[in-house]
Design goal:
Blueprint lengths: L7 E7 L2 E8 L8 H6 L23 E3 L4 E2 H11 L4 H8 L9 H23 L12 H4 L13
Length: 154
């Protein structure tokens, strides 16, 4: 509890197993609800923070609701496995293979990543320069960032 801020974070446990979490504040509280939902029924001491610990890969905001697939998980697979189409993402991760409502977002994500990759290649070759400082600073840590999705100025 932080009386100065008027906030409270409470976790409910039964036999050291998480059964619920409550965050109360006069303004929105930064918590990863998707992550907290995965902790139910586990001994999760870090659950009071409401954030993904640094030791756990952050899946990011959910892009595919059917399979609970986060955008960072999809971006990592695209980068590490060389996925170039929505179909290949579906084959490898399953995302987009159920209801299909996330397929347009995945196509946009692929297009943004290909544009960024091409711009970076041009910058390295000395042929052109892309002013990366116009992007949100979080894009450098984990692209796309939740603020601008790597597609617009900060």
């Amino acid at each position: 509890m932080t009386p100065k801020r008027g906030t409270a974070r409470v976790v409910f446990r039964r036999d050291k197993v998480l059964i619920g979490a409550l965050c109360v504040a006069p303004t929105p509280v930064a918590v990863m609800r998707d992550y907290l939902c995965t902790l139910s029924g586990q001994n999760a001491p870090e659950s009071i923070t409401g954030c993904v610990p640094k030791s756990v890969p952050n899946p990011g905001p959910v892009l595919c609701s059917c399979f609970g697939m986060g955008i960072n998980t999809i971006v990592t697979a695209i980068e590490t496995k060389g996925l170039m189409s929505v179909e290949s993402i579906g084959e490898v991760l399953g995302a987009g293979t159920n209801c299909g409502s996330c397929r347009p977002e995945m196509a946009q994500l692929l297009a943004r990543m290909q544009v960024r990759e091409a711009a970076t290649a041009l910058d390295r070759s000395g042929i052109a320069y892309l002013p990366f400082e116009t992007l949100h600073s979080a894009c450098f840590d984990r692209w796309p960032c939740a603020t601008c999705l790597g597609c617009g100025p900060a």
